[in-house]
């Protein structure tokens, strides 16, 4: 039967190994290129990610050591290799998979997403030899009569020549039930293990396109698309009775409330400085002071306000002095002049995205 998981998602039979690690925040997201043979109208990538760029989580990769550092910071137990289509830069992708396996061992689980357009037997053999554990195919179900779709479907058959987990991964797009059923049966007949279905969401880059096509959000507070979740559940119910595949319906809530939060919590343990508090959401909460001359402010806080120097950190890159929240609260009441105090919450990520700022007093 279709069951609800503890992660706000839905499943039939066993979750793929890649998903098991992902929901616990244990998967590094390794974006090896934004280049892709397709241009799907629902692709959520931002414009700057549609270039030939590499990211490990939020960190731009300038050297291979950036990948190892990010995985270590996260204490990752695996990686999800994505894009674009990682096969569009096959040699780079192969190099990174080998790098992760060499540094973290054979048990470091790596799964990869691909359209299948470039999944020739020769290319798949390179991925397999590099140590790839799981491959997920996302053919263009919207254009089943196109030449590219026929290539994708034919190439998928090559994957079953290798001893790894093979499955599919598709968005749940209202109006596409027949195509989704066809794909599930196709996978099942080939001997695939699973089909992952993702609740469709608006992104900044797809909002206008999806609205123009008649899609609507679930609510004013949600980026999820109306009808997508229900369609996904309908497919799972059908698939349980008509195929032997495992299914996982990955919801918008899972991505935001579970996967991201669990990853942030893992990273926060490594990133948090002594004066920072780790919140339930995995963000870092602390106080800051802003002033034109940071050296002058630091000297004043240590010598005049008698704040212990070990409680203060001068962050020149962000133009502020950081400190424990309670110290900022006390100083905001006591210090007069142009100094501004705030409580901030930030992601413990490479970019340190600020998610909240509270002025004091």
Automatic annotation (TrEMBL):
Record has Metal-binding as a keyword: yes
PROSITE patterns per the UniProt record, alphabetical: RADICAL_SAM (PS51918)
Gene3D superfamilies, sorted: Aldolase class I
Radical SAM core domain mapped to chain residues: 21-240
InterPro entries: Aldolase_TIM, DUF8061, MJ0021-like, rSAM, rSAM_sf
A Pfam match: DUF8061
One GO MF term: metal ion binding
Keywords, comma-separated and alphabetical: Iron, Iron-sulfur, Metal-binding, S-adenosyl-L-methionine
Keyword Glycoprotein carried by entry: no
Superkingdom of source: Archaea
PANTHER family, per the entry: BIOTIN SYNTHASE-RELATED PROTEIN, RADICAL SAM SUPERFAMILY, GLYCYL-RADICAL ENZYME ACTIVATING ENZYME MJ0021-RELATED
Protein name: Fe-S protein, radical SAM family
Species whose genome carries this gene: Thermococcus siculi
């Amino acid at each position: 039967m279709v069951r609800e998981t503890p992660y706000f998602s839905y499943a039939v039979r066993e979750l793929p190994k890649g998903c098991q690690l992902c929901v616990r925040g244990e998967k590094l997201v390794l974006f090896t290129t934004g280049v892709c043979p397709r241009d799907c109208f629902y692709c959520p990538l931002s414009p700057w990610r549609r270039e030939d760029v590499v990211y490990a989580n939020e960190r731009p990769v300038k050297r291979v050591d950036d990948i190892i550092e990010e995985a270590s910071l996260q204490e990752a137990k695996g990686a999800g290799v994505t894009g674009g289509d990682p096969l569009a830069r096959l040699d780079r992708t192969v190099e990174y998979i080998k790098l992760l396996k060499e540094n973290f061992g054979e048990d470091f689980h790596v799964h990869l997403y691909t359209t299948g357009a470039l999944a020739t037997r020769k290319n798949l053999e390179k991925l397999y030899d590099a140590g790839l554990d799981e491959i997920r195919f996302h053919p263009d179900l919207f254009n089943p009569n196109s030449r590219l779709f026929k290539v994708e479907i034919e190439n998928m058959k090559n994957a079953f020549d290798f001893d790894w987990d093979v499955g599919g991964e598709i968005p749940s797009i209202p109006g596409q039930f027949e195509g989704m059923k066809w794909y599930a049966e196709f996978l099942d007949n080939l001997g695939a293990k699973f089909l992952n279905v993702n609740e469709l969401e608006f992104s900044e880059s797809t909002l206008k396109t999806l609205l123009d096509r008649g899609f609507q959000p679930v609510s004013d507070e949600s980026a999820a698309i109306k009808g997508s979740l229900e369609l996904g559940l309908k497919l799972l119910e059908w698939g349980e009775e008509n195929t032997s595949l495992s299914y996982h319906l990955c919801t918008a809530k899972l991505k935001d409330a579970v996967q991201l939060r669990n990853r942030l919590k893992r990273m926060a343990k490594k990133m948090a400085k002594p004066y920072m508090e780790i919140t339930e959401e995995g963000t870092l909460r602390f106080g800051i002071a802003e002033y034109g001359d940071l050296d002058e402010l630091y000297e004043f806080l240590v010598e005049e306000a008698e704040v212990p120097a070990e409680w203060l950190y001068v962050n020149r890159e962000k133009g502020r002095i950081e400190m424990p929240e309670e110290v900022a609260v006390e100083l905001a009441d006591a210090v007069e002049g142009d100094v501004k105090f705030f409580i901030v919450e930030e992601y413990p990520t490479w970019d340190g995205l600020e998610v909240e700022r509270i002025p004091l007093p």
